[in-house]
Every structure is written in structure tokens, then in C-alpha cells.
UniProtKB/TrEMBL annotation:
Domain of life: Eukaryota
Protein name as it appears in the record: RING-type domain-containing protein
GO molecular function: ubiquitin protein ligase activity; zinc ion binding
Domain RING-type: residue ranges: 404-444
Alphabetized Pfam families for the sequence: Neuralized (PF07177), zf-C3HC4_3 (PF13920)
PROSITE patterns associated with the record: NHR, ZF_RING_2
Keyword annotations of the record: Metal-binding, Zinc, Zinc-finger
InterPro entries: B30.2/SPRY_sf, Neuralized, NHR_dom, Znf_RING, Znf_RING/FYVE/PHD
Domain NHR: 14-172, 224-386
Amino acid sequence: MPKPARRVIGKPAALTFNNLHGKGIILSNNNRQATRTSGFGDAIVFSSRTIRTYEKVFLKHRQKQVDWIGSLRVGFCMHEPQTQFTQDTLPSLAFKHLTDKAGYWLRACSDELLRTSPIIYVYYSFDGQIYVGGYGQTTPAQAVLTINEHSGPYYLFCEVYGKTDQIEIVDESTLPDQSLVNEGVSLSIHGNVMDSVNAKLANNTNLSHLQYFNYLFPSNPPHTATFLSTTKHNVVFDTKHRIAYVNNLRMKSSYTFLDSSMKVGDVLICKVMDCDANISSILLFGLTTQNPSTLQNQSLPEETNTLVDLYSSSRWFIDHDIEANISLYDELAFWFESDGHIYLSIDNRPPITLKVPIIPSNMLNMTFYPFFDLYGQITSLYLYNFSTLSKLNFGRQSTARTLCVICCENLADTQLLPCQCILCSQCASVIKRPSLLSDCPFDRKHITQIQPLL
């Protein structure tokens, strides 16, 4: 079975509004502008294609000077609009009529945001959070709603409501100052993976430390497991061969093999250090009896089934795309048991069973080498060590720091006072500035100071 061809090359197709829309909407400017003609109902619009994770949709909006209450509503839906409705069957209003149905998520924009930002942007993150922000504003985008279905990508879903009578999709390349997007908080999509990871590690040494599986090792465990040195698999390594980085994001295959074998009861521990947000597939993990030293400096094919055919004298057991929600800085534990099943625990949670088991016959007489293909969202892995299955304790209470829910890039290591909400130091410094009377983005309480977590 070949792995999904999901590596994104270049930009997605141009974004416009869907031809399926409310009766009160007129589309113009090559279907990029949606105008409500009268009243306040029949103004639902959708995007012409699905929106990828972290892909920002920029919307220029117009508000009328009227006494109406309410304004533009933005969100996402999981259904292809034209398969669900006709213009006659599309509900007049989105709230209740659509949002009470499975697969539709919508939230009204704040009056303050629309008043101060003629262009807003909306996107969703790995963990299903929908964010809305004002273009050019230094205030971080706010998480306004949670998608409870993690099977995207999703269609943009808006209602041109209340004071807002027109919205227009704006191409990001036409915006005047790209540096203001993301409020100065970088979300790496395409670029140099090695430089991105190394910069993050230089700014925060805690990122290299295990949090969920640290109980498996002493304070300074020896790194007995390393990645095998190679030059032809679209992967580069740090000097100690502990961190693997995708070299060219435009190529699908990024194979990386370990130079150590593993046996029943061994647990391989690694950590996600970088993600390519535009990819919907996750990661390939496999075990092979092929000694990876024989593959050094070989030009390997992009498709895994072709690789298996080339070395068919060996045994290969591969999960081509792990069906799990894996995010930045997640810690992964892989192992297999005597019944042949291969398991994965994410952040010390109860394990999931991977799709392809090892055939148990003669398993104890075989030598298995683990390998990855970083062709999906995961573009960098930090390799730690082997532990043993007997040491795993899934009931152990975690003290790990979570990812900052605002930027989804840094660990939440800073506390706002007096409300005690947690986020990363970078986002905290943006929110709490001496020149501002700052309020907490989570509970709207006034912030008096920020302090690092111990």
C-alpha cells in the first residue's frame, strides 16, 4: 500500500465564495465579494474549496451605520455545501438552524474587532481551535470556538449578518505588510526546518527535555539510539544524529532509519520538534528486517511500496499513515509485543494499536530495525532512547507543560496574574505591555503582571 501523496507543493487554488449561498447574497468580483442585498437573513456563504490547517483566510468587511445588533459571523463546516443544500433549502439563518447540526461551527466577531480592523483573518489549528484576529493588530488572534471533529480540512462558513453587509476575500499577497500577520509569532509552514528547530531550541532549552516520559530515564540518560547517517533520503541531522529534519519540503519522501535494532519489550522514545501545518497526513512508522546500513547513500524511491519491492527479500511491517492526532512537542513511544501488535503511546496516554502487525511466525528469531518517513505533518523528530515496556506507567499523573493555546508554537511557561491563566512568555509579553491596560484573553480579567512558572 503506498502512502498518501499529501506533501503540499506551492500555494493552494485561489479562494472564492461557493456558488451555493443564501438568497439574500450577491457575489461579485469573480466571486470574491459577497454582499447582502436586504434584510438580515438569507446571508450564509461558504468557501469554494476546503481550508487547510493554519491557512489564514483574510476577509475585508463593510459595516453599515444602522441600529441593528449583531455583526459578521465566521467559522468552518465539514460538509461540502452543494451536496447538502440547494439555494431553496439553505436555512435563512445559521445559528440554531445549522449550528445545532453536526459539522457546523460559527461564532460572531466582536464589535471591537470589526470596528478597529477593516480586515480580519480566521483559521483553525491542529487541535481544532478556531482563531479570529485583526490584520495588522499586535493583539494575538483569539481562540473563539473548538471544532469537535478532527477529520478536516474544512470549508469556510460565514454569515453576513447584522451591521456587516459585505465581505470580500483578500489574497494574502496583496496585503501591505506581511510581517504583521500572526502578531509577530511565527507559524512555520514552509521553510528551513533545521534553522526553525535550532532557533526554537536556542531560545528555550526546555524544549529538548522530555516531560511526559521523563520518568523512564535518569536525569541525564545516555543517548544510545541515534539516527543512521545518510545523504540521499531527504533528511539531515544534527551533529550527534539525534534530531532528524526534513531537508526539502517539496519532496514527498524523507526516510530516516535508526542504527539500532529493537526487540519485544523495547520502547522507542522520540519527540516531535516541527510540523508542516498544510499536510493532512501524519507520519509513517515501520519495522524492517533489512539492515539499514545497506541502504546508506542509496537513492530511495518516494513511494514506500516501491522501496519494499526493491528489498523484497526482507520483511517490512509499515503503518503508512498513523491515524492519531499528533501535535508539536508531543512525545511518542513505540513498541511491539509477542503477539505481533505494534503500539504507540502519545504523551504517556493509553496506547493505540497501529494498523499493520508483525506476523508472529519466527518473530523471536528476527532482528527488527525501526524507521520513519517524515513525509506528513511531522517534519522533525528528536530521538531519545530505548526504555522497557515494564517501566511504562500510563496511570502516572502528568506535570507536563502544555502547548500555548494562543500561538500553538511554544510551551505554556508563563502565568498571568491575578487570574493565573497560562500561556507562553512570548504571547504574554505581547498581551501585557507597559503602554496598555491589558486584559486576559481567556477570562477578560485585568492583568497586573506576568511571571514565569516554576
